[in-house]
Amino acid sequence: MGVLNVTPDSFSDGGRHTDCAVAVAHALSMVEEGAAIIDVGGESTRPGATPVSEQEELDRVIPVIEALRARTDAVISIDTMKPAVMRAACAAGAELINDVMALRMPGALDAAVATGAAICLMHMQGDPQTMQAAPHYDDVVQEVSDFLAERMACCVRNGIAAERIVLDPGIGFGKSLEHNLTLLANLDRLAVHGRPLLVGVSRKSMFGALLGRSVDQRLPGSLAAAAFAVSQGAVIVRAHDVAATVDAVRTAHALKMRRAAT
Ligand SMILES: Cn1cnc2c(O)nc(N)nc21
């Protein structure tokens, strides 16, 4: 899953049209490098990120999704918490809703049901403004697992077939370094829900804490964590550096397949 941030701070000083053309070109290059999914996001979910209005988010992502839909068969994912953005993005060609709030915002569940899209349910403790203040768990793996089970049950109760659902532990979303490492080390315990697992570690602050690396020096750590996650059962890896991550993930998968053969 290639990351496509359509937020002003992720582009040069071009206007919106430039941003759209630049975004589409970047997305197509990620597809070329092996991305099966392009995750289009118009509102940063980084810790402490400033919320974006619904109209601003729509203005950012819809033109990009429309242009992308016309240029590639890759799956387009919409990274949003807002029901109106989910509906418009799917109408424009998105086929996966990537909601870091796991459809907990008012109207999000109804929007997801109406679109018929696949859904990624991700765990977050708190919200992007507060989640890293003082995250606490008694048993992080069990609590994340229970949350995902509850959200999936809620979706199924509302008519979203389990086959449409992907689960994600939400690395970095209300977690300390210890919590993130424990979740990745025990990712296989989330396989009990019988749904594909999505993991996003790319360039995250856990590598600053663990390795002392700045955000532009986190590729080795990100690749190691992505490969380990695949060895533990992750099926989708969300990444900025697609070519390198594709090689790491394909290597880990080849090795994992041989373990199963012995
Ligand atoms: C948008 N976004 C940022 N990090 C993410 C992660 O780890 N998983 C998912 N599903 N989305 C993410």
From TrEMBL:
Kinase in keyword set: no
InterPro entries referenced in this protein's UniProt entry, alphabetically: DHP_synth-like, DHP_synth_dom, Dihydropteroate_synth-like_sf, Pterin-binding_dom
Name the record gives this protein: Dihydropteroate synthase
Single GO BP term: tetrahydrofolate biosynthetic process
Annotated ranges, domain Pterin-binding: 1-250
UniProt pathway annotation: Cofactor biosynthesis; tetrahydrofolate biosynthesis; 7,8-dihydrofolate from 2-amino-4-hydroxy-6-hydroxymethyl-7,8-dihydropteridine diphosphate and 4-aminobenzoate: step 1/2
Keyword terms: Folate biosynthesis, Magnesium, Metal-binding, Transferase
Cofactor names: Mg(2+)
Family affiliation: Belongs to the DHPS family.
A Pfam entry, by short name: Pterin_bind
Species: Fontimonas thermophila
Cellular component GO terms, alphabetical: cytosol
GO molecular function: dihydropteroate synthase activity; metal ion binding
Catalytic activity: (7,8-dihydropterin-6-yl)methyl diphosphate + 4-aminobenzoate = 7,8-dihydropteroate + diphosphate
The keyword Lipid biosynthesis belongs to this UniProt entry's keyword annotation: no
Enzyme class, spelled out: transferase
Enzyme Commission identifier(s): 2.5.1.15
